[in-house]
Amino acid sequence: MLTSDLAFSGGSHLLSRRAVMRARASSINHPEARFLAFWRGRPLVDDRGLCWLRRDHAILANRDSTLYLGDLSDKPRFACLIPHGQWAREGMVGVQFQDIENAEFVSLRSVMGRMTAEDGELAAVAQSLLNWHQTHTFCPNCGHRTQFTCEGWQRHCPHCHTEHFCRINPVVIMLVVHQDNLLLGRASVWPEGMHSLLAGFIEAGETVEAAVARETFEEAGVRVRNVKYVASQPWPFPASLMIGCHAEAINSHINIDTHELESAVWVSRQRTRAIILNRDGDILPPRKGSIAEFMIHLWLDRQTPP
Ligand SMILES: [Zn+2]
Known about the structure:
The protein has five helices and 16 strands.
C-alpha cells in the first residue's frame, strides 16, 4: 500500500506552499488560478472530485475570505467561502451552470476516499484554515476583533498587535496488538457497525508515547509498551494531526470507559482481513482513506514495527 492511499497526506512535494509569498500581493489574477468554493463548511465536488473554478465563475461572485493555498505545478490555488445565505438549505439544487454538471457541496469526509493526493492536501489546508477563520474572529489576548491577513494564513489584532496562527491539535491513534490480535473499538456516534483504532488528544506536557499508553488504558483498560511511530495524517475536522503508532499490549483483558466507547474487541488477523474488505457482517471497517484503515493494511501486510 502506498502513502497516497492516506487521504489529506499529499506531501509538500506536490504543493508549493510558498510561505514567503503569502504576505505579498497575491497571484489571484494569474490566468491559471483556480478556486475551491466552500458553502456552509462543505467543498464543491463533482463526479471527478474537487471542483476547481476560474476566478470569474458565477458561483464565486459574492465570495468571501479568499485564502491562498499554494501553487500546484506553478498554478495558484485558492479557497473561498460562499456566503451562508447564497442558496436555500438544499444548496445548488435546481441552480444550473453551463460549465459544471452534477456539482454539489458535500462534506469532505464523504469524499476523502476518492480524492487525488493533490486534492486531498489542498482540501485539508482549505478546510482547516476556513474552520479556523470562522471560529477565531476575536483576539484571545485582548478581546478585540481580529483581521484576516497574510492571504488567510494569519489573523492580526489591530488593538494589541498580536499575530494569530491556526493551531493544529495533535491526536494519537493506536494500532494495539496482542499476540496476533488487533484491538478495535467503536464510539456510539459512529455509523452503525463501524469499528476503528482507539484514538485521543495529546494533553499539555505529554509525549506521544505517554498519550498512547494513557488513552489505551483509559478507554479500554489495556496497558501497552514498545510504542513506535508509524505514520501521520492531517485531519481537518476541525484542525488535527493524527499521529499513528504501533503498541504492544501487556494484558488482553478489556475494561471499557463507556463515556468514550460503546464497545472494544480483540480481532484475529484473519477476521481483520475480512473486516477491512467489508466482508465480516458484524464489524464494519474504518473510513476509506483514514489513517486507521491505512495502518490496519500495514499490519495485515506485516509492515508495522515488530
Ligand atoms: Zn488583541
